[in-house]
Amino acid sequence: MVSVADTCRVEGAREIVNPPVDTAAAFARRDGFVTSWHDDGQADWVRGIGADLVRGHGRLDGPRQVAVETGEGGRVVLTAGHAVAICTGSRPALPDLPGIAEVRPWTNREGTDAHVVPGRLAIVGGGGVAVEMSSAWQGLGASVTLLVRGPRSAPVAADGAVCR
């Protein structure tokens, strides 16, 4: 378990725990972890261990087989020695709300890539991503309203920890 004292020893994290929040330091730490949203380093590592990297849209194509439609219009069929692991990732989806496109909504992608803290933010949903984003943006100083359709959301983290 990580304590507040442990957090206070981490560059970029201590600025989040101690008020006022240093948003530039918090965003810089995040950008460092996600390598500014480029996977070049990970792609180089995959190639470095002798593996082939195939980018595209894959579909199961038989026992232990995946067919990948590449961006260049090609098709590559891969056969696994033992099993196929399906790691789908995710795609943001906007709810069907009248006028939502006109307000230029953030999805989870924009919500994790922003470099400015909005004064006010409404988050639609009560699942893990919505609760995490509401907690994070409130911690960074935004006034957040979480809009949930059901009787309750996933648990929201408590705030108020301070480094001494």
Mean pLDDT: 83
Kindly report the name of the CATH homologous superfamily of the largest domain. FAD/NAD(P)-binding domain
Number of strands: 5
Category by helix and strand content: alpha+beta
Q: Hey, roughly how much beta strand do the residues contain?
A: 15-25%
State the name of the first-level CATH class of the largest domain. Alpha Beta
> What is the end-to-end distance?
19 Å
Q: Helix tally?
A: 6
Which percent bin holds the helix content? 25-40%
Number of structural domains: 2
Helix and strand string, N-terminal first? HHHHEEEHEHE
- What is the fold named in CATH at topology level of the largest domain? FAD/NAD(P)-binding domain
Record the strand order, biggest sheet. Answer: 1-2-3
Structure description:
With 164 residues, the protein is of the alpha+beta class. It has helices at residues 4-8, 14-17, 23-33, 40-48, 108-111, 128-139, and strands spanning 57-62, 65-69, 75-79, 120-124, 143-147. The strands form two sheets. A three-stranded antiparallel beta sheet has the order 1-2-3, with no helix packed on it. Strands 4-5 form a two-stranded parallel ribbon. It is extended, with a radius of gyration of 21 Å.
